[in-house]
Write a structure and sequence with these properties.
By secondary structure, this protein is of the alpha+beta class. It has two domains: 1-41; 90-180, Immunoglobulins (Immunoglobulin-like), CATH 2.60.40.10. Helices cover 20% and strands 34% of the residues. It has helices spanning 2-29, 64-72; strands at 90-97, 104-110, 117-124, 127-137, 142-144, 147-149, 157-167, 170-180. Strands 1, 2, 3, 4, 5, 6, 7 and 8 form an eight-stranded antiparallel β-sheet that branches. A hairpin with a 2-residue loop joins strand 3 (117-124) and strand 4. The protein is elongated and about 115 Å long. The termini are far apart.
């Protein structure tokens, strides 16, 4: 009798264990549970540093007399182009590839010219390429038309980039070395 009771307990325990395993397998297959995937480590982001912006009032650069003329409308508030013959301020905002094998991107910002042409020159040893674009209005500023040079036009290596902007009797140049990778 004692053996039969122990046998029944073992038998019932085995059936319950198999039933539990069966239920867990079914839940796993139905993707209700996920016992096999390791948890993804969460990335702890460091708190942003306190900004160092000065919130004190700005120092006025114009005199009270000039400010009053602006209010009265007797002075032109728009900045006049730089004087005749002064060099054009040329700023390269992008020069190079965004990704390996991608086109070479050239972007230029102009702060004191509204018309003219942009000559983009690339040299690598005896190889040279030249592109001409116009100065265009981009809404609140002026720049050279965007230039994306296909990677097929350039060989891999170090290229000297020069952007020369010419307008009437003024000009300005920005230079940078870029690395072309395929």
């Amino acid at each position: 009798m004692k053996n039969s009771k122990i046998f029944k307990i073992i038998y019932i325990s085995a059936i319950i264990a198999l039933a539990v395993i069966f239920i867990l397998v079914v839940l796993e297959k139905l993707q209700i549970t996920n016992f096999y995937t390791k948890p993804i480590a969460t990335v702890v982001v460091a708190p942003r540093p306190v900004n160092d912006v000065q919130y004190t009032p700005a120092n006025p650069t114009d005199s009270d007399e000039t400010n009053q003329k602006k209010l009265d409308g007797t002075i032109d508030q728009n900045k006049a182009p730089a004087s005749t013959g002064a060099p054009i301020n040329v700023v390269l905002t992008a020069a190079g590839q965004d990704n390996i094998g991608g086109p070479v991107v050239v972007r230029v910002l102009l702060t004191d010219v509204t018309t003219g042409t942009c000559t983009i020159s690339l040299t690598n040893g005896s190889s040279s390429k030249e592109y001409v674009k116009n100065v265009v209005n981009a809404g609140t500023y002026y720049n050279c038309e965007a230039l994306d040079i296909p990677i097929g036009e350039l060989t891999p290596g170090s290229w000297n980039l020069a952007v020369t902007v010419t307008s009437v009797d003024r000009s300005g140049t920005a230079q940078q070395t870029i690395e072309v990778k395929q």
